[in-house]
Amino acid sequence: MPVKPFHLAWFLQGSSAQGWGEPWTGHIGRSWMVPELFLDLARMLERACFDYILLEDSSYVGESYGGSTEIYLKHGLAVPRQDPSVVAALMTQVTSRIGIVPTFGTYAYHPYLLSRLVATLDQVSSGRIGWNMVTGSSDFAAMNFGMNGMPEHDLRYDMADEYIDVCRRLWNSWEPDAVVADEENGVLVDHAKVRAVNFEGRFFKTRGPLNSGPCVQGQPVIAQAGGSPRGREFAARHADTIVANVKGIAAMKAYRDDVRTRMASLGRDPESCKVLFMIAPILGETDAEAQERKRIRAARAAETIPQRLAFLGKITNIDFAKLPLDEPLGALTTNGHQQSLDMFLRKAGNRTLREAMTDYNATELSVELIGTPDAVAARMGEVMQEVGGDGFLFSLPNVSRRVLAEIEDGLVPALQRRGLARAGYAHPHFRDNLLAF
Ligand SMILES: Cc1cc2nc3c(=O)[nH]c(=O)nc-3n(C[C@H](O)[C@H](O)[C@H](O)COP(=O)(O)O)c2cc1C
Questions:
Q1: Least confident of 310-319, 330-339, 427-436
Q2: Per-residue pLDDT at 330
Q3: First to last CA, the chain
Q4: Cα(320)–Cα(325) distance, rounded to whole angstroms?
């Protein structure tokens, strides 16, 4: 079979004290407010020809573990988080080809405000913006915006279906050639090409047109990560790219096949959406060095069980501090990230919470990748052959310039030598590069 390149993206855990407590992070505990590290990251990943950087976000301080904010604040677990739109805008100004994908929760913005914000970002980036469209999952986040709690899980997706419909109408309210800038006749905008939007649905109401002008890409790239059956249906309907955390090649293939089948039955071309799987490769100059780094990471993971339980509790709204560490887990349910909880429970099986947590998320996400850049590149190629496509989303807990350099100057050149990663961008706009192969 001919070698086909695949897509690469980076999952940045929000704008924050990245890799706090990890080696090689300099003075990150104090320097995070000024985003030099994130701007360097954007420059480096663009030199490595990544498709995009996805900026995670959640608009609240965790309080699930033991009913306290302490563990979250003490260890910098998903806090502090700067507003992703600001960091995204700054990233667009130091790059010219890579896609930038901030996360915005549909519970936190009126669709008009969101459409305008994303359209503006698409303009200032010259057509390189995506939106990681999340419905939110935490009652604490909902309360920060005046609600009593999050709507029920599947209802959130029903609301999001209507939400994106409103956004698309607003983005379409300007024809691409509405701005004529005709100096001779003194016409900036052809008013006949800017249409009213009067929308009144089950959940949202707005008028239009948008006052920010058209998106450069027409519509921004939509990224989505719904993992439950309802979430997948939503993503299959709307997304240009899906980021997925499923374990093992069989599950990856099944996930992608499922999304593509859903897309086809919705009348969409499955090639018009790229599914990227989460990975956290550990590289070394030799295999032995990489294995030693894995050992250090695993030892670190064993020491940080409460922190990692607090993180899982944050996205599932479960207080894991209340559960005995040395007993098997009972049945647990969530109105938060259903897929993350299902995956954890499946992995835990009959083991105790402590045992289950010891290796959870330690080094593998979708597949384990450990070794020299060449060996990891070869393995990534094999995995993609078996899954069928479309690429990988790097999600590393220890973001630093050193780790980024290992990927830019070690792993990506090894992928490029094999024809598995692009060596240059073919198009100026994000979606065109995303759908180029
Ligand atoms: C790679 C990845 C990135 C995600 N980023 C965010 C995020 O930034 N903010 C957020 O609220 N949820 C985020 N999510 C959660 C998803 O939006 C979704 O709620 C989750 O995958 C569970 O889907 P489900 O409820 O359909 O099972 C992310 C999920 C994945 C797999």
A1: 330-339
A2: 82
A3: 15
A4: 9
Q: What are phi and psi of 278, to 5 degrees?
A: -75, 135
Q: Which residues line ligand 1 (CB under 6 A)?
A: 11, 56-58, 103, 105, 132, 134, 136-137, 153, 225-228, 231, 243-245, 278, 337-339, 393
Characterise 415 by phi-psi region: left (phi > 0), alpha (psi -120 to 50), beta (else): alpha
Instruction: Provide the token pair at 328.
Output: 């098997």
For helices 153-171 and 229-238, give the axis angle rounded to 10 degrees: 10
> How many whole angstroms separate alpha carbon 173 and alpha carbon 207?
11
Half-sphere exposure of 45 (CA within 13 A, CB side): 27
Looking at residue 325, its pLDDT comes to 92
CA of 287 to the centre of ligand 1 (A): 33
Q: How far apart are CA 251 and CA 226, in angstroms?
A: 15
- Among the atoms of ligand 1, which is closest to the Cα of residue 136? 11
Task: Please tell me whether the overall predicted TM-score, pTM, comes out greater than 0.90 for this model.
Answer: yes
Quote the radius of gyration of the chain (alpha carbons, Å): 22
Note whether 400 and 366 are within 8 A (CB): no
Peptide bond into 390 cis (omega under 30): yes
Q: 50-84 in b/e burial notation, b at 16+ Cβ within 10 A?
A: bbbbbbbbbbbbbbbbeeebebbeebbbbbebbeb
Determine contact, residues 166/210, Cβ cutoff 8 Å.
no
Q: How far apart are CA 42 and CA 40, in angstroms?
A: 5
pLDDT higher than threshold 90 for residue 344:
no
- What is the rounded average pLDDT of the residues 135-149? 95
Interacting residues of 354 by C-beta distance below 8 A, sequence separation 6+: 305, 325, 326
Q: Quick one: pLDDT at residue 1?
A: 61
Amino acid identity at 305:
I
Nearest CA to ligand 1 atom 15: 225
Q: What is the pLDDT of residue 408?
A: 98
